[in-house]
Amino acid sequence: MRTITSKKSQITRQSSNASCSGGSGSWSGSPQGKGIPGPRQVNVPPIVGKREESNVIRARGLVALILLLAATGVATATNLLVKQQERRDFENQFNAYASEVVTVTRSKASQFFDALDSFASSIGAQAAVEHAAHNTSWPFYRIPEWSVQAKKLAQLTGVNDPIVAMAPIVQENERDQWISFAAEQNPVWYQESIEHEGYTEMTLVELLERTIPFVHFYDPDNNFQPTPVSRPGEVFPVFQQYPIGLVQGVPIMTTNIDVLLASRQSEELYHITKITRRPTIGFIQYDPDDSAIPGSQIIQPIFEGADTEAEDRKVVAYAGIALHWLDYFKNLLTEGEDGIVVVLESACPKLIQEGVPISFSHVVTESKRNIITYQVDGPNAIFLGEDDLHDHNYDALVVSEPFIDLDIDQSQLPEGSCVPVLTLHVYPSAELEDSFKTNNDIFYTVVVIVIFAFTSLVFLLYDFSVGRRQRTVMDRIAQQDRIVSDVFPTAIRDRLYENQAKNIMHTSDVEEDGGPLGLDEAFYGTSKTNGSAPLADLFPSVTVVFADLVGFTAWSSAREPHQVFILLETIYGAFDKLAYRHGVFKVETVGDCYVAAAGLPEPTDDHPVVACRFARDCLKKLKDVTLKLEVSLGPDTSDLELRTGIHR
């Protein structure tokens, strides 16, 4: 410990035990609680400051570069992730749409062929009943309420305005009788159809006038004039048709047209149906010359009798339906589900393998397949054209499913003939993908950039704050340097800086911004433990003031520690203010003992007077303070007195 010993005219620092005595002329105690001459000073050479400043600048640049690279990387990754999520959403939604298209179209096809088979069976059963009741037979049979039954079948096809017709098989020896039968029955079913269909295009008389009274075909070699069929064998005249008198909205009567000569495809389909005794489908190609819309013709055999299980049933007539695929692909999706491309492929696997030309419509093609493309936009459909016209950027997303496969043994058919298998290929379109593209990628990218910009701004503000703090510290250091220069002589100050600069790296309790400079460092230059020689100076003329509380021991023994602390803190705080006012240097406090000195660190001639005035004011201040503390510390607090000793 350190001791300040007063010998009338001098003060020196020596090691001793802690005590405070006002009557012996000496005092010893710990320097803790002493006055604060000023913060610790570190004399740093200018070259070190420049080097550190250069390091700080490089560190700033490195942090800025890291932030820039991180912002760029995270923004790019965010943009890609959002786009990938949009792509996944698009693909998932397309798969849902494609599944819906395939499911609905296949369901409609299955429903259609079931309805067509039931229609044919119903006609055969009705004819059997009529034969039993009136001894009638095929082909001389008129289907009662034809338009009603045909309309129900048309509704089950799932397309708008299909053409439904019935053509009986008329043998060569039955032609004359057939002409008479048709002339007799046409007015009857015409009138029924007019009434049931609400037909207003032509009257019954006009329909009869337009009806050709014999089995005929339109001869292309004779300017497409109706020409009687003269070939031997059976003929297939169209008898009843729905809707009546209209073919694609054009008032045309098809009654008595021989379907075998109506078109090359019709002839082939009827021959295939006759051989297989099963329904047959043909693909009507797109013909830009006459603006024909691609579609299909389906032929269903009608058997004699009501026994649907008999294998030897006789085919007595054919029911035929012509439909447009454009109508078929309508009403597949709901409003807003747009941009689905449907490629319909009609192909004959057997002939493709054998390399045999396939006969379609009016031509023989070497392509062995027909392909048409539609776009489905909600409940609407658009014919895009012949061939596969989908966007090939979406090849990997195709959903392909067999659409119509009648499972016919192709080996039964003559060479060059086939029943095609219809396959659906469903693709998305750019329109559909665009509907899933949002500005989210831009939005989230901007958010990331803003976050990094904000982070960078915070970094800059922090850097600015640290720089300002450092400048403040340097200003304080400069100010304190001036204070130290004022307190200590130049030689002493330089020795303090030199010692401190040498030992600062070995001092464990050095604070970053400089802490209080204790008496150890102030007078020894650094900690005593490092063996440095103390800095000691002689002050030959000073006055020391000792002051302690009378009755403090008894008072404190009856108080809690925090009450003792409040008392001493309040009293010594008041004394510190008095010391500052009088220019007295506070040396230290030990327990209830307060030690101060006048005449140092700057010598003065009137230090005894200053010390006496300070002691006098301390006596007055104690009374004021203890009276105020009676409320919180007890009534006997004001009984405490101050004993002072002044040594010169």
Description:
- The protein has 14 helices and 24 strands.
- It has a five-stranded antiparallel β-sheet with strand order 8-5-13-12-11, sandwiched between helices. A five-stranded antiparallel β-sheet has the order 18-17-14-20-19. A four-stranded antiparallel β-sheet has the order 2-1-4-3, with no helix packed on it.
- It is rod-shaped and about 165 Å long.
- 30% of the residues are buried.
- The chain has 648 residues and is an alpha+beta fold.
Strand content: 15-25%
Strand order of the largest sheet: 8-5-13-12-11
End-to-end separation in angstroms reads 23 Å
Radius of gyration, in Å, reads 58 Å
User: What portion of residues is helical?
Assistant: 40-55%
Give the helix tally.
14
Largest sheet: 5 strands, antiparallel
Shape: rod-shaped
Summarize the helices and strands and which ones pair or pack.
Blueprint: E1 2-6, E2 11-15, E3 19-20, E4 27-28, H1 46-134, H2 146-156, E5 163-168, H3 175-197, H4 204-210, E6 216-219, E7 225-228, E8 240-242, E9 246-247, E10 250-251, H5 264-276, E11 280-284, E12 295-303, E13 315-324, H6 325-328, E14 340-347, H7 349-354, E15 358-360, E16 363-365, E17 369-377, E18 380-386, E19 399-404, E20 421-428, H8 430-435, H9 440-487, H10 490-503, H11 519-524, E21 543-550, H12 552-557, H13 561-582, E22 585-590, E23 593-598, H14 607-633, E24 641-647
Antiparallel strand pairs: 1-2, 1-4, 3-4, 5-8, 5-13, 6-7, 9-10, 11-12, 12-13, 14-17, 14-20, 15-16, 17-18, 19-20, 21-23, 21-24, 22-23
